[in-house]
Design goal:
Elements: H1 11-34, H2 45-66, H3 71-92, H4 104-130
Length: 137
């Protein structure tokens, strides 16, 4: 039985998971640039998408392993945290948030990747904690 209730969402794990996501995304993108798979001078959507997916999967896995209740709602909260941070960046006038996005579809695709990866990671973490990982588990 799933425990997808708002009362099971822990803000501390959401914030910690979001920090894990940003750190892992940055490290993954740095590795992609270092290996030459992504050029530092050009915008590479595929490399960026892969880095975001890896980062938010790691965040979902982290939250799922540490706090296995409500993995999908934690994924939603991780994505909403990204939206809040981007809006705060826009309001401060730094020009790197939503205003810097080339188009709305790029921003929406990035948020969808964040949610999907965090949800998959959270579900995997929950399955690992409950001992249901494996073939047919």
């Amino acid at each position: 039985m799933q425990s997808e209730h708002l009362g099971n969402v822990h803000p501390g794990w959401v914030l910690g998971g979001w920090l894990v996501a940003i750190a892992t995304t940055s490290a993954t993108f740095l590795v992609l640039v270092g290996t030459g798979m992504v050029g530092p001078e050009r915008q590479d959507a595929l490399g960026f998408g892969v880095a975001v997916a890896v980062g938010f999967f790691a965040a979902g896995l982290f939250v799922g392993l540490r706090w296995s209740e409500a993995p999908i709602l934690h994924a939603v909260a991780l994505t909403l945290t990204s939206i809040v941070v981007l809006l705060a960046i826009d309001l401060t006038g730094a020009g790197r948030g939503f205003a810097a996005a080339e188009s709305v579809p790029v921003a929406l695709a990035t948020l969808l990747i964040q949610f999907a990866a965090a949800a998959l990671g959270g579900r995997m973490g929950r399955r690992m904690v409950s001992g249901r990982v494996g073939a047919g588990g």
